[in-house]
Write a structure and sequence with these properties.
Length: about 375
């Protein structure tokens, strides 16, 4: 088949995340199976209009908003005739049911909902939350593909038939460790994500403030980049808590450094508003690092509560601090979670995941 992926970002975009990594891995497998793949996406500073990436034809046009307007023009007027279109939804869909008459799959990582309030100012957030339940009416007969069961629950609430949903859990692109590594000499906690409000970094900082009251020599690493104004705000919060000497901003790091930091840390802390899956949880698990997370969509799927990490019964910085300290002080429980985390990461493979996505696209 000749497959078209519509996605607001590609993996070379500085703001790309786990969703783009997952899309790339599946697309590479489709090419290996004999399909052709074109990925239409937005431009970014110094980006090429067109290039080949791992056998995928990347075509860029417009910014992260206008790409949604340009997608129908690209689809309707390109010389390529596509057999299947993947409509990847990040807050907004590409509304392919209105102009694509070929088979379509809606690939959604999370139903935005409250994310609009965290990521966009008024009145954009109000418009976004208004559109959210409406656009699903256009997609009632479309197959949905997502990463986690909790997202299916959200889709069903919006009128999507559960029988139209396929869940494919996300592996990582590295082989997990074979044994438990040495950790830092002092209690070390890590947050890895884009540094934006919806990822809950402020709550994690507050949690670490409470952790540090009990574990005086603890340290906290923040890995990822974000808007300079927001990072300045976080630095002000850290300064007000007098924990600046125990917190380090690493910024955006390469994959090798990211895995090194995950390997050295004792526990990953994540307090996101919502995730599609929480790929970083599996990345941490692959380094024998359990996670303590908020009970939200995505994170409650990628963490097995009491087995590979802890899902909080009450989402608050105080509860996160309490459960994190309890886990670290219980050496037997901590080691059990480390071993289970490694096993969980090893059980998720791209071979199995891409078999599932190939089965899905070939069924249409």
């Amino acid at each position: 088949m000749n497959i078209l992926i519509l996605n607001w970002r590609d993996t070379k975009n500085p703001k790309s995340g786990g969703a783009e990594i997952v899309t790339l891995e599946h697309a590479k497998a489709w090419i290996k199976a004999g399909h052709k793949v074109t990925w239409f996406t937005s431009k970014f500073k110094n980006s090429k209009t067109e290039e080949l990436l791992d056998g995928i034809r990347i075509v860029r046009g417009g910014n992260f908003i206008s790409v949604y307007l340009l997608a129908p023009i690209f689809y309707l007027f390109t010389k390529n005739k596509f057999d299947l279109v993947i409509d990847e939804i990040h807050g907004l869909p590409f509304f392919t049911p209105l102009y694509v008459r070929k088979p379509k799959i809606a690939f959604i990582h999370e139903v935005a909902g409250e994310i609009w309030d965290y990521m966009y100012p008024f009145p954009v957030n109000v418009v976004g939350k208004f559109i959210d339940p409406l656009y699903f009416k256009f997609y009632k007969n479309i197959k949905f593909w997502t990463d986690a069961d909790s997202t299916v629950d959200d889709l069903v609430k919006h009128g999507v038939s559960k029988s139209n949903c396929t869940v494919i859990n996300c592996p990582i692109d590295r082989k997990p460790l074979e044994s438990i590594p040495n950790k830092e000499n002092v209690p070390t906690f890590v947050f890895v994500s884009r540094v934006v409000k919806m990822k809950g970094v402020e709550d994690v900082i507050k949690a670490f403030f409470n952790i540090q009251k009990e574990l005086k020599n603890a340290q906290f690493w923040i890995v990822g980049d974000g808007d300079k104004k927001y990072i300045s705000k976080l630095n002000a919060i850290i300064k007000s808590y007098s924990i600046g000497s125990r917190v380090k901003f690493w910024g955006r790091v390469d994959e090798n450094k990211k895995y090194e930091l995950l390997r050295r840390a004792h526990i990953l802390l994540h307090a996101s508003v919502k995730e599609g899956w929480g790929l970083v949880v599996i990345e941490a698990a692959s380094q024998a690092t359990p996670s303590v997370v908020y009970d939200v969509a995505g994170l409650k799927d990628s963490v097995k509560n009491g087995k590979t990490g802890v899902i909080l019964s009450h989402n608050s910085p105080l509860e996160m601090a309490k459960q994190t300290i309890n886990l670290l002080r219980d050496e037997v429980e901590y080691e059990k979670l480390q071993k289970n985390a490694l096993a969980w990461a090893k059980s998720l493979t791209w071979e199995n995941a891409t078999k599932e996505s190939l089965k899905l696209i070939n069924s249409l």
